[in-house]
Amino acid sequence: MPAIHFSSRGFFLAGLLAAVLPVLAPPASGQSRGQPEDVLAASMAGEYALQSGRLDQAADWYLRAARAAADDPGLAERAARIALLANDDALAGEAIKLWKLRAPRSLPMRSAEATWLLRGGRERAARRELEAMLRDPDPDGWRHALAALGSGTRDPAASAKVLGRLIDAGAIPDRLQAWLAFGGLAQRFGELPLAERIVQEVVRRFPDEPRVALLRASQQREGGDVEAATRTLAAIEDQAEVSPELRLAIAAEYDNLGDPVAAARIMARGPQDERSYGLRASLLVKAGDTPALEQVYAELRSEAGAPDPGQRLLLGQLAEYLERHEDALEWYRSVPGGEQRRVAQLRATKVLHDLGRGQEAFAALRALQSDAVVDEDTRRDAYLLEAELHKEDGDAEAEHDTFARGLAAYPDEGALLYARALMWERRDDIARAEADLRRILVAEPENVAALNALGYTLADRTTRYAEALELIDRARVAEPDAAAIVDSYGWVLYRLGRHQEALVELQRAWRLMRDPEIGAHVAEVLWVLGRRDEAREYFEKSRELDPENRSLLRALRKTGADI
Asked: Which residues contact 102 (CB under 8 A, 6 or more apart)?
């Protein structure tokens, strides 16, 4: 998780900016933005506004800094990107215009301009810019066009229409990777006729390429024709032995079809290594196919004569899943060293707990916690695992005590604070959850996970929506296309009553990641908008992923959709 650690000097500057910010406030409506600025002061004010989650002010300040820095396209770029995140189309247009003056042929600038044009409904101008990027001699031109079409669009149907016209114009470069990427984008938009059209074009252009069959299978799956997708994959199964990458791709598509057993069968073809064994095991665990797991276990055990750390760790994990706890304990204790040894030590304590030897397990964890020879990560993780085991036992007091001891040993340790915050949230103690997340942010102001978790918690469990939005906006600046953060943004918009905007963002999050909580959020917004048949479809999709998801159950109770 990327994080910026601020020094004491950084905190001093932040405090200074807090004091002078009223003096440096952005110009009021109607006031000229063209006055000369001190570049450093304006940049610092922009950064302070950004740290406070005020994206509109941050974009304005960076634009003022960019105007004052005559030859610096970077400041104009920063202003443009922040303005796009803030959905301030007017300010984004000003920043892009300046960026264009400073870096007229920059592909990132042209991609941002195309995004801005699409958002403003200027499809013809956007299409001209996208076509120019696709025909650019730079081999990465198509990637920038793809990003503009796919990133943050407010109307997937409009973007899909533009993509169709780019195909009509013959603008997509004659490269398989580009066609596959745009085909995947059409599927993400939910435009199956367009995806099928792309598949047909790819087949015509690259008739002997097995990855084309993968695209067709994916398109058939998205269209609900599982039988056809399975037949398409079966026709290229033999190719799995030609290339490890292709083997992995075919297995992944079988898994997407809901057939992890077939995926594991594909991974069993060709030479085996630690990675392929691990993937086979995880797929069979997902399928609950114990007999097949037994076969993988026997196969791997027959090759485990040498003390290979990775194989022995995997054997321990397989034995643990197969509930051969004594075997698992033996394998874990035989791991000779390295990173695998660290994991094995911790897993061994979990096995002891599963064997009903809880006192022995907790004693082993406490021995790790106090062993000065053991590395810091293992000692910290021993506290995390001990808390998790107490949670499994339903021993709330012991779980709390473990976090207290861990934080006494590692004050302000982010992983411990984050886990304890989740504990407080689970117990509906939102004030304490917030306190722990804020402690993380004092040490790591740009900890994206903490920003998003705190913003989402405030949006979901309190009425402090404006504050939640500021925190989530800070996370969005760091990771604008992370599904969890896009979901949080959509959810706070919903809580603010901005239902249509919320639906756009939540459906975008769903396209990025099929997650039961995201699906429940989409369903609840659709329900409130009166689109109840669509809402039920999303509820059902979320149930298929995880029927016990807490957000899903809350949404069903709230809407009455489960009645």
From this structure: 66, 71, 72, 73, 76
